[in-house]
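User: Quick sanity check before I run a bigger batch. Here is a single chain. Can you write out its predicted 3D structure?
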Amino acid sequence: MKAVIIIVCVMLVIFGTMGAFVYFILKKTNPKNQDSSERNNIRTAQEFLPFEDIRNNMIVLGNHKYRAVLLCSSTNYQLKTSGEREQIELSFQRFLNSITFPITFFMQTKVIDNSKRLEDLQHEIEGTVREFPNISNYAEQYLKDMVNLNQIIGNNQHKKRYIIVTYDDAGALGTLSDEEKAVHAEKELRHRCESIIGNLQAVGVRAEILRTPDLIELIYSCYYRDDYSYAEAIAKNEPFSLFVSGEEDKFKDIPKMKMLDLLLGETVKKIELANIDSEPSGKMVLKELENLREKYAGYFNDTDEEGESPIVW
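Assistant: Done. Predicted structure follows.
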């Protein structure tokens, strides 16, 4: 009998301890409670954010570390010919090989916010209707269609691609003041961004440096990201598949004429993206380059369906 009582008491103690532990965990993780067990000295939202400021087109992380962000256009790799795909891959590998500082590729998908655009459109329509009252019915129907545009086209999200450029070396400039270090970091980041922009043109990708308001919008959208996952977007086998499995060195045994065609093709793309061919002299230079490429190289232009060039050098 005593043994049964002892066993019951032990079980009550065990279950009581487990219940108290579970209650403590639930109480601690209750969203209504403020859990400050990790950092109980946070008084403002600014102290929670992992950066100090956003200014001069830079994200200031603190401790003399800075970031700039490039917004990049896309290129439809799947619609390219086999020769064009190979040229894109080689140009992209050349771009990666030219990078001497850390960068991060970032893809963001978010819900399209048309509220500001619809507000501006409504003001424009109201002004137009006042001047031309006979189109009021058409204007009303047009505004109604624009309000429901995302439902009509079946898409309310858009995807943007970014490159985050780093600069963490300002702290080593011991003889400069903090303000001078920030100015030096701004110049160095601009130089790095311009280098990346120039190299991306060879791939056929446009890029621009995000200004301070655009950086603020990007950071804000990261914290208010609704229900989508950036990790999933980045992991998808889309434009980033060119470098996540880029262990193969495509330049190892590349023929000289193939390299010549690659360089000429990159030059043509840079001229086109920079809109230099809008001037008569630029148009003439572009035409000469295309003729030179056709005459002496043309490797990617003449690549057949199997990806082999029929030209014998």
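Residues 87 and 262 are 6 Å apart (CA to CA).

User: Great, the batch can go ahead then.
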